[in-house]
Description:
There is one protein chain. The chain folds into two domains: 1-59; 87-166, no CATH class. The longest helix has 55 residues, at 2-56. It contains seven helices and three strands; from the N terminus they run H-H-H-H-E-E-E-H-H-H. Helix 6 (132-146) runs antiparallel to helix 7 (156-166). By secondary structure, it is mainly alpha-helical. It has a three-stranded antiparallel β-sheet with strand order 1-2-3.
Amino acid sequence: xxxxxxxKIKSLQVQITKVEEEIKNYNLQLQNxxxxxxxxxxxxxxxxxxxxxxxxSNDIIISEHAxxxxxxxxxxxxxxxxxxEIMSDEFKKGITTLGNGTYPYKNHLLKVVDSVxxxxxxxxxxxKTQPKAQLKKSQTKxxxxxxPHKKKRKNYFGELLExxxxx
Length: 167
């Protein structure tokens, strides 16, 4: 009976030690979280100060929306035509199939995220703006899409990619 009690005592002591270690680990994690929160709060404070400076500045800011409307209304640029110049309907179908990535089109690159063209870059600026690995991945996707399939279709993407790679 005494032997059974000592075994039970030892088992409980081991369990207590394990739980105490878990509590120590949680406390360390909590300290790290508090540090992260403090750092984020300092960032927010810094951003708010910067925002306040910009808002109280006497400088007039022209919004991107105002610039867009100026281009459309004053310069008489047809936005639908401009949109089609950025990417054709045929190319949109290919991008829908391929998904996210950066794709060469005419003389520029289109970065697509979640079916939205988020930026356009001139092809000459490619080495400055895009990592080679990412470009290679997009080029590979374009090549795969452009490969002949059983059903014959226009090889628009393949030709586009070849033109791009030849330059």
